[in-house]
Amino acid sequence: MKGISYARYGGPEVLTFGEVRDPRVGPDAVLVRVRAAAVNPVDWKARQGHLDGLLEPVFPVVPGWDVSGVVVRPGLSVAEFDVGDEVVGYVREDFLSRGTFAEYVAAPVRTLARKPRNLSFEEAAGLPLVGLTAFQVLTEVLLVRRGETVLVHAAAGGVGSVAVQLAAYLGARVIGTASERNHDFVRDLGGEPVAYGEGLAERVRGLAPEGVDAVFDVVGGETLKTSANLLAPEGRLVSIADPEVVRYGGRYYFVRPDPEDLRRLSELAEAGVVRVHVSETFPLERAADAHRLSQRGRTRGKIVVTVAQEEGEEGVSRGR
């Protein structure tokens, strides 16, 4: 099959398009015909070797953890899905090797849920990693409650944009940092935008003089110190970007695959609670360009790689 792979760590230039090994479908896995796969910062960080101490690579590595597609063959012990089912998945295993930037992926059933019927394959591919991250941080770690004030950093990005929507759905008041050009976008998501950069603390205090109850950090660095100083008494701070958050009394969190959480996200998407904004799509063979764009760090919503259907393959319409 065709796919993207890299045989060593490095920049986007190490990504090659060509033949990759066919996936083997274990008893509790599902063979998925990939329609789209989202790009996440963790993809290029893994490609650069930044996750080497966490996940062992088995070269050549096929990158990508997010996927939307159609079930081709369920494993022998899988009863949850059948041939032709449309699915989404956060297909992360405990090593780097069998990713989603390919025509097919063997996805453990614990990483999948049914695709939201009202989303295109491109939109659906952008939901799993960012949606699970936002959902788990807000509901299990920050324990956001109705009436609280939540500060979400990078509110126009992939994780941030979903976090704003979910926090608002949970009944919180949401303040979101974003560039001026994205302020209307953040408002449309249900947040109150503030510009990031110098003077951020004063701008946030102008909206929340008594401090914020929770901070969702996706930036790290100096932002952590500012965030800690903005917390109300008993306020909570979580970062998905920087383990140094523990120095400020916060918690570092790494998202996990969870089929029930993903199923709930799919339901919220179908109910219109969560929308996925796709800023740009690239064909599979241009995955390196998609990585380059992601690394610039100014993306609104998601960047998605699409996989062409095989000749004669029956398509599946949006919203079926």
**What is the name of the CATH class of the largest domain?**
Alpha Beta
Distance between the termini: 27 Å
CATH architecture of the largest domain: Alpha-Beta Complex
List how many beta strands DSSP finds: 17
Structural class: alpha/beta
Query: Would you tell me which CATH topology of the largest domain applies?
Result: Quinone Oxidoreductase, Chain A, domain 1
Task: Look at the structure and name the CATH superfamily of the largest domain.
Answer: Medium-chain alcohol dehydrogenases, catalytic domain
Radius of gyration: 19 Å
Strand content: 25-35%
Tell me roughly what share of residues is in helical segments. Answer: 25-40%
Domain count: the total is 2
- Shape designation: globular
Number of helices: 9
Which parts are unreliable, with pLDDT below 50 for 5 consecutive residues or more? Answer: 314-320
Mean pLDDT: 95
Would you list the SSEs in sequence order as H and E?
EEEHEEEEEEHHEHEHEHEHEEHEHE
Describe the main β-sheet briefly. Answer: 7 strands, mixed
Keywords:
320 residues, alpha/beta, Quinone Oxidoreductase, Chain A, domain 1, Rossmann fold, 2 domains, seven-stranded mixed β-sheet, six-stranded parallel β-sheet, 26% helix
